[in-house]
């Protein structure tokens, strides 16, 4: 078909060039945003007397019809069009005639695509934000139910000190809370509307950019038309935030994969979120967690692609910027799917509390508390540390936990130990004595839980305003 921009050219574009240049296969998902922006533009044109009311009504009716027909599947977006803008404008002209040719007055595809992408990202930010909210609630439920579920805390993948499952999950709540806040922070820098920037230098038409911005839910028009068409910072910020979300999900997935193994047996993943083996009937694989871990790389790739694309571009618009879409669309889709499935897996996952407690007990996680016991009775910490290390060696020799080592063995190493050492190194005592802010004591975690709940309540209140 003839191109809307073809007046300057004396022959048709080579088909291989046309296909290489076209973006319709991926930017067709922007049809709703493109039509929404076009309707606002037309309303502004009529308000300024650039088109008349009859033309405005015909164009808006035509655009609304295209929107409905595409949404309902009656109208297909095909590759005979170069991009989504050409599709909308061409179909509009076919349907309403010459009035449709006035749609593009006072704008360029440069400010049009900048607007479409910004509107799309704004919509997707809200969806991802709600998914993070659901994930936070899933984590919150685990915290509330496991304030006294003991487990080993790890450093270097080695058992370190006893904590609770609530405390461990609190770390992930903090991570996802930051993700939540990061997404909302990005929105604060997406309040300017690029429409009306033209190709790069505005237009001679007397546009009311403030009115268009208001119609589209922006606070104001962009103050520099060059930046208006060439800014993709908000998209890079989004991909950065999505990469951090995936990093958090991947770390969590790695732990679930380990906890699901025969060596740990800390969790039982629900059948609905597991698969089996085609050859080994005993297998129950943590595929969702593994796929989340795997998809993290492709989201990172989208961020790197856009950073590399933008790093050497002179102002203003360049065709390279068409590469902002495919990776971004894929990253957004991947993150939404991962968050949703991960939250479902968490909500249905069973925790083997007995295994967690036994693992903490058998891993000498209370060795530090044995040293603290001595310090509280006047032994210098460095000496106490050495004595506790000898106790661990004795336990390894006898294949026993610190809790099971006879008192006489304790006293052979240090006469300071008395019968109350067993109370001092019990998992409950080890955890409950850690009362500093951020520590795993159930009392401290209850206070943190109240703060987490208040955070969620404040978020919901803000959303409803």
Descriptive terms for the model:
465 residues; mainly alpha; two-stranded antiparallel sheet; two-stranded parallel ribbon; 19 helices; 6 strands; 61% helix; elongated
Short description, anyone?
The protein has helices at residues 15-21, 24-27, 31-47, 53-71, 84-96, 109-145, 165-188, 209-215, 225-230, 233-259, 287-310, 326-348, 353-362, 367-375, 381-398, 407-413, 421-424, 427-432, 442-464; strands spanning 150-155, 158-164, 192-193, 220-221, 267-268, 350-351. It has 465 residues and is mostly helical.
Strand content: under 5%
Strands of the biggest beta sheet: in what spatial order?
1-2
In whole angstroms, the N-to-C terminal distance is 48 Å
The proportion of residues forming helix, as a percent range, comes to 55-70%
Radius of gyration: 30 Å
By helix and strand content, what is the structural category? mainly alpha
Chain-averaged pLDDT: 94
Gross morphology:
elongated
Low-confidence region ranges: none
SSE arrangement, N to C: HHHHHHEEHEHEHHEHHEHHHHHHH
Q: What is the strand tally?
A: 6
User: How is the main sheet built?
Assistant: 2 strands, antiparallel
The number of helices is 19
What's the arrangement of secondary structure elements?
Elements: H1 15-21, H2 24-27, H3 31-47, H4 53-71, H5 84-96, H6 109-145, E1 150-155, E2 158-164, H7 165-188, E3 192-193, H8 209-215, E4 220-221, H9 225-230, H10 233-259, E5 267-268, H11 287-310, H12 326-348, E6 350-351, H13 353-362, H14 367-375, H15 381-398, H16 407-413, H17 421-424, H18 427-432, H19 442-464
Parallel strand pairs: 3-4
Antiparallel strand pairs: 1-2, 5-6
Helix pairs in contact: 3-4, 3-6, 3-8, 4-5, 6-7, 6-12, 6-19, 7-10, 7-19, 10-11, 10-12, 11-12, 14-15
